[in-house]
């Protein structure tokens, strides 16, 4: 990482949901603030700004990460995915999102984008993840509405659905 | 009232929520997502680091001079443009949203900065200098009542702001003739259901019309709108309050955003531009709002068979530093059901409200229920244990019998419906109590700690807006004029294409109101769910609303959905009359279904809903005589059972009363003291269930929060009023790993008082679950004095007794706890340097040298020859913070000795101390000896003594190490090493 002058804004460029983005930001600008307030993608939510609640989770090069603990300057050249990238057709929910709706895996929806980004990464990397693994994976997220049970059911259902799609004749 | 018939096509089905597609794809619109005017500025708030202090001076010069800052306001600036907020009791006390001459809790606003963005606004906060004179902090509600206690509000002259005594039946006679008197004393802790989205406000002011326009993620009750308007000194029609389409949870907490509505509105007025404020998590945990902590002494008169004949309540409610509206409502919300699920005819109550140096309290899920039921259900447990009776028998013997409904309680409540015994017995059978008992017996046979707990509670919902006036005496109430009822409102509109829109003032915070209202209205009009669109945003300038509007007291299903059903039925009757003319039949034979209106006796004789519905727009002249329009119908509904308090203080505080019976099995790890919930069963009677999935969602969500309250969560304060749980790493919210899945059961008895037969359901487990778990822990340990939260450290105390001091004390002068919760540190040391005594002396008095040698110093300013100010950043263990240090020199014997005394303060804590430094000439230079005594308070003091002692030694050591480096010739590496080794030679 180059040495940055604190008094100046610096250019940062990265891939966001498949498109190249260039932004000129202060060194101290958080990734969460860049996404939400400079670029205008407000699907990534900010709940605690100290890395505990998990609401701001995005994917950096495929790995779930806290946008509130990441400086915008740290993501130069990275590939960022946010909740807005989970659907290709805006009118059709992804299997994971559809499972959340079916199982009532959300109420206020504020923590949901972060949880979806974590689960999306897990299910891509570990399609066979079971209940225990999903629970452990979600232990870095706080949800105050649902009591978690329906989130787990939704995740298990989505994993199952994904496995079926990948092996259509099974 | 006559219950509305429901066809059952949609109500009672778990349909997918209409809210979810947007929320799942990142298209929710929460307050921080809303577009704002281009000239909108950002507000940041400087907050008190002290629990109790006088403000001697505030210097905002440097903050105002920072580029990008538009304005800075202090409490006096705010006070000039506003009035004190209304206080709900008769007391000579003011209530401001920002401190004026005194701060009374950590986190209390002290100054406001409006700047071009949040980063700059927060930079400016660091530049504001506040001169505080600390006062003794009052933290314990009982000590707050002591004759010599520091008084928070001098105008009040005492910390006891309200006291009322109530008597129902003849409790003394019951006690005199009772076979047993059994009592319990509990101290219920502070906690909060803290939502994941924090507060947010966007405010602007129009000087031309002297009118404010504010959007806030406020949740109601909208009685608070009157408080805001009065504080801003404008009529209600010049205080437009709007809510965003989505809100990230509230659980009562977002009622407490209203003081910030006032602050942001005034800031916008002064700044001359719109102002936006998004609270951060530290602010939220420290200073948003919390449930009350309460000390309760409860005594029962008990017959030999366990029948309770009288209850004596003595409740001491701690509302924090100010009594903010609607407090002391937490204390009175349960007043009509202080006898819980039991038929107890004699009740005495003493209610006292005390002010302490803690954050002001407000709405929180369960609102008053957790505090009341913790005492009552712990007492019922204790009665059974003391009398050697089966706990379930004692519960059964006291339950309100099924044939008694509607049942008038001793304190004036009217329990609407229920069959408590059947619900209880079903729960035991379907929930598997027998199997749980076997597991308990097996565990105990193996020497493990297993206990079973029970709790029976009545869950009140749909608050009577007048219950809070029970805090006034009957004479005061008569003078103030009668208050009663609770208006629910719903509007149904039909547009020119015949599609239906529902508008309510229910301000959902994630509960799915829009889905349920679509179900209710679509079913009544024979439409598909998708044909009905619901808008639940509230705008006080445009929409129908009243003081009871909002999302609280579990009023949605019972009151708001009911009002929507009533509005739908009015429209339906008119549509039937219009269709009857077109179908050539009578109106009472018109039925609705599949988007059509048809002759019930000849379904082929039909006309489309849209055609009938649009007639009022396109051809009003064709409507049958006497039939009103079908364009828009607004129904206000207030239940007649919500009467004003009687002359003898009887109050039906809520319209509906659900019933909950819970039982659980817990196992306690003997080694760690950890409580594990083996199984949890919760039985609910919430009347008619409108959407089973959402009802269970409410139960699970409330249960998870209650598990947190029972096992982990507490807003903890130090003895000096410092706040110790300001991050989510300190205030522990259960994750998925700590949250078991409860077995949820239902037993429906419909409420005769609500349009759809529904009752509230969202708060019950916050009332029943903490005490159910506590009873199980009491059963497992055989301990009676159970305090929440049941953290491993607390449980370990019961398992092992007090922690013994270590056999080999590490330090001959062990750290002691200061009188006001501070931690005392002492130490001494010496260092040898090559510089002369005169030059070392000069260095100690030079700000530039001090800046170079004080660890973490950003700036050292010389105020006078004997007074320095420093800004330092220090990290102790995991706690890193920025502090402002004030250093004064005294007892100066130039160039031999000087005493440095001073204090530091920062968001994470404060410290004060004195150090004597003596300089002695040696053959090679100068020896510096130092001896210090320090007291540390606030969050840093909670880090732990050993860590703190060590850290203080390191920091002080670093100071003299730097001084030595500064004073000695560092060219000789061997010399340096030698110097360093002598430098750290500590005297013991």
What does this structure look like?
The complex is a heterodimer of chains A (170) and B (988). Chain A is built from five helices and five strands; from the N terminus they run E-E-H-E-E-E-H-H-H-H. Chain A has 170 residues and is α+β, with helices and mostly antiparallel strands. Chain A folds into two domains: 9-85, Roll (Ubiquitin-like (UB roll)); 95-166, [2Fe-2S]-binding domain (DNA polymerase, domain 1). Chain A has a five-stranded mixed beta sheet, sandwiched between helices. The longest helix of chain A has 18 residues, at 149-166. The mean pLDDT of chain A is 95. The N and C termini of chain B lie far apart (82 Å). Chain B folds into four domains: 34-135 and 195-287, Aldehyde Oxidoreductase, domain 3 (Alpha-Beta Complex); 144-191 and 290-469 and 643-800, Aldehyde oxidase/xanthine dehydrogenase, molybdopterin binding domain (Aldehyde Oxidoreductase, domain 4, 2-Layer Sandwich); 487-536 and 554-637, Aldehyde Oxidoreductase, domain 4; 823-983, Alpha-D-Glucose-1,6-Bisphosphate, Chain A, domain 4, CATH 3.30.530. Mean pLDDT of chain B is 92; it is low at 810-819, 969-980 and 982-988. In chain B, the strands form eight sheets. Chain B has a seven-stranded mixed beta sheet with strand order 3-5-1-12-9-10-11. Chain B has a seven-stranded antiparallel beta sheet with strand order 29-35-34-33-32-31-30. In chain B, strands 7-15-14-13-8 form a five-stranded mixed beta sheet. Chain B is built from 24 helices and 35 strands. With 988 residues, chain B is an alpha+beta fold. The longest helix of chain B has 28 residues, at 556-583. Chain B is globular. Chains A and B meet through helix 2, helix 3 and helix 5 of A and helix 1 and helix 18 of B.
